[in-house]
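Researcher:
Attend to token order:
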Amino acid sequence: MPPAVSLLVCRGTTCDAGRGDRVTQILEGLRAAGHAYYAVDDLCALAAAGDPMLPALGLGDELTVIACDTETVRRLFTEAGGNWDDVRFDVLDVKTATPRQILSHVGAA
């Protein structure tokens, strides 16, 4: 289980989204800006395995997820359980947004 974080990055290492370079640029930008984040290799695999980390992330006030598909990520977290009604929950799609746009959105550009 990760420490309390408000930024989760999916590396998407087991899916082909043609986004490895984008994710690398995002992770480098977050590190350079000193942003705390938690990175996982495959968010879909964690959800399929019923990893308790997903509902636990809903215990905070806000969560931004950087991953590959907005609707899929929202569905994964909803199906994982947890109380998402009171959480500001954003998903930034690395397939449709540039690394610069994503880093700007999280205040790391």
User: Anything to note?
Assistant: The longest helix spans residues 20-32. Residues 7-105 form one domain. The chain has a mean pLDDT of 85. The beta strands are 7-10, 38-40, 62-67, 88-93.
